[in-house]
């Protein structure tokens, strides 16, 4: 009898659902399983759940399930998504974010943190002026070139190569300057485009290359490190401002914690994933970075000429890199 009562009691306890969160938020991103984006977003979601005592739940949706970067930016404003993790596409929101499209301007993650400390008010102001709110920064990483035509040692080797770029005007201008034929394309379309020969190559950090399995459809990896791209834990300004102070605090604290996690994870992946790419049979070469830096001067000049206050930003970021 006691056993029956105990079994009944346990069954009723198991039938009671866990307490539902007071607030459920959707986080969409384009990262594939195993990507740095996925690790970043999952860490953020776990942190928010933990710090809020379960009262705030962040549901994660990777692999462009809720839309590609451009669509996610629109859905944030429409309130259909609560968070996104855009990177290069932020330069299409405001030219100010184009500072991170300048080749070789960010030297390392410590440099990036100093730039963040010095320029966050400016970046946040631009985001809010366009309807967004930067909850915190993560990263996409240092970008390198893969292709199926030839190893890339100097910019001239890019001549005529059809290279996928993100939807950012300055990245396109950069590769035009180097002699490539840049083709803006959503990340989720890149594998098939490489496989079918619609494009010859692409440029991304190792974490994106390996998780998207580009090593299966690319012959050459050239280590250029031409751009470091931050990623932005981004919300709608209208939506974010509607949260309670307690919720805002949890969301921003977890963004700061996630940035530290992401930087450590990214540094580890740079070693691990380069080996994964090599093991897949991709031929790897170190590019002549000085040749790329020399060829990049007109991009800086164009940015300074076209964007108000750009020369001041360039000078500030370069100065902050001198102590790296």
Automatic annotation (TrEMBL):
Signal peptide: 1-20
Swiss-Prot/TrEMBL GO biological process terms: transmembrane transport
Principal location listed in the UniProt entry: periplasm
Entries under Pfam families matching the protein: DctP
GO cellular component: outer membrane-bounded periplasmic space
Keyword Transport applies: yes
Source organism, top-level taxon: Bacteria
Keyword Transport on entry: yes
Keywords, in A-Z order: Periplasm, Receptor, Signal, Transport
Subcellular localization: Periplasm
Similarity comment: family membership: Belongs to the bacterial solute-binding protein 7 family.
Protein name: Tripartite ATP-independent transporter solute receptor, DctP family
